[in-house]
Amino acid sequence: MLDMIIRPIRVKHSFINFVCMACSRALPVAAVTVEIALAKTIGDNQTEATGDNPASELLLDADPRLAKALGRALSLNELKTWAGLPEPRRAKALQRITALDRYRAEGSELSAKQAAMEAGVKLGRFYQMARAWSANRSLESLGAYVSATKPRSSLKPHVNQALMAVVKQVVEAQSNQGNSIATLAKKLGAASNLPAKDVPSANTLRAFIEREQRRRRNTKLAGTQVLFDLSATSLLRDDGRPHVAFLAIDDGTGLILGHAIGLAEESRAGYQAAAQNSLSRILAALRAKTIWSETMERSQIVPGVDAPAIASMSSRIKGEIGGAAPQLTAEDKQGGYIRRHTGLKLGSIRMLPSRTGAAPSAMKMTKGGELNVTDAFARMEVAVTEHNAGLLLKLAIEGDAAPPGKLIRMLEMIAAA
Fold first, then answer.
1. Contact at 8 Å (CB) between 163 and 188?
2. What is the CATH code of the structural domain delimited by 225-415?
3. pLDDT in tens, 254-308
4. Sign of CA dihedral 123, 129, 135, 138
5. Would 301 disulfide with which of 36, 78, 228, 357, CB 3.0-4.6 Å?
């Protein structure tokens, strides 16, 4: 039998809602804040609670708004978390739940961009929340501010380094042999050459194997790595110079996420326009495709003539999304990523990488068929759409229906540069 001391301390409403600490089950009467002090358990052995404070106190808030929004009874941990949130943050959590449910409702015509605005978050953050909410309707899915995360136990640096150094080879060598994760974990421990006392637990080794297997799967999914590149084209400007194409290319699938027309000496502006086009294209044509990775791991960007401006932009993005921010390559790599994924021709448009960074006088070509920027963009749009349509027909991958949040946030930041 459990002897419980229950006393109300700060009544917010007219009645009291007690919580049974023995079974973690709410006994609803109405919503109030109560303080529950667990006394001792009175049994045959008269066992007493342990600890310096056997009657440890918990402040719980049985706010009916949250239970209604989640559509279920609240756990004790959720009650404790909610009790620790000030009213403005509670309102924000409820606002996010409403937006997520409207967005995910069957037959909903609410766009992700509109839902993000309703939730009061950036589009990239909204995609992260939507993915987490789909897997688990909980406070934790709404944002880091809602609940504190449990600190992970960390490995000693030399142990982590030893495992990271060989896990890729272990998984790759056994990829076609049908070994279980448990077997691969044992092989990883042996391959690390760590002293027996330093080899971590089987569960830790399994986590390394599973993470590497997930990484290998994700490299084939859209959004894992994005490449920003530029190249002169066969499309001519009025002054006889070639129009320069700026492309955002998904490395895993070869899809062109976005494009723009600009000048090599103004590559920051070119990539800004390409990022804006990428956001529109993803929302309009690619969002519902189940081709996306859970997270973006890295991105590369080839600078034009204005490399310092690109470096400054990359540094600012890194401050928000970390190592996935665009890493600058050498300027002499202009057109290299484009060549890898499209060859030297995109539809009827020829790519001319060697002319990209040349002096304006050296870039002039034989006149004829000059196009303004709007018409050149329209020609590129046709070529990009045909390129992507052909790839989508051949893709045999199964990923998420929403792009990685880091990808969207990176594109938002480049677009606003």
1. yes
2. 3.30.420
3. 999 999 999 999 999 999 999 999 999 998 877 667 888 888 989 999 999 999 9
4. negative
5. 228
